[in-house]
Amino acid sequence: MTPPKQQVTFSAQAILFDNDGVLSDSVASVNACWRRWAGIYGLDGAKVTAGIHGKPARESIAALLPDVDTEEAFAVLEDLEVAAAGDTKPMPGALDLLATLPRSRWIVVTSGTPRLASARLHHIGIDPPAMITADDVPRGKPDPAPYLAAAAALGVDPTACLAFEDTTPGIQSARQAGATVIAIGHHAQGAEYGIDDLREVRAAETDDGLLVTIG
User: Fold this and answer.
1) Catalytic residue among 18, 25, 166, 197
2) Percent of the chain topping pLDDT 90
3) Catalytic residue at 18?
4) What is the CB neighbour count within 10 angstroms for residue 77?
5) Is 69 one of the catalytic residues?
């Protein structure tokens, strides 16, 4: 990830937002719930939380517990996370940026389920016009399917989209779909640009879509 040395402005047809770590600050809640879940199944919570971010939970569970029914173990985790949705906060700049965007020009692309993503977003006051969740695609991030589905839902070419992500699997997914990727934070690799948070992003509607300035 290479942080821009100066402002960068470009056109886009739409913006594709990951949820956790981009719009919703849920990392503390996620880690706490996964650690509790790991304890239930006799796993090392620190090792579990080191490898689950940015990927569909069912895939992580299947890899961690190959001899346990994935759906049953997933239901335990989802109940924990939904119960903790009240611990979610908006990421810096998220609400202000979304307030400037036409609802036809953005979508949420999350590895979470509709139930969990809706609980977190509702708690922080975000009502997305549309979402692509883990339940909507045959393969989750880092596969490009989530971002291809998001662009299709908005009726735009994925190569004309900006994607905001904070994990390596998410960045890989968006890039393989053809989107230009802006990474949030400093631990994700492979994005075209890197910023601290959405306070560094401004957007204005144009006749053709959006004019977006970062930095």
Assistant:
1) 18
2) 87
3) yes
4) 22
5) no
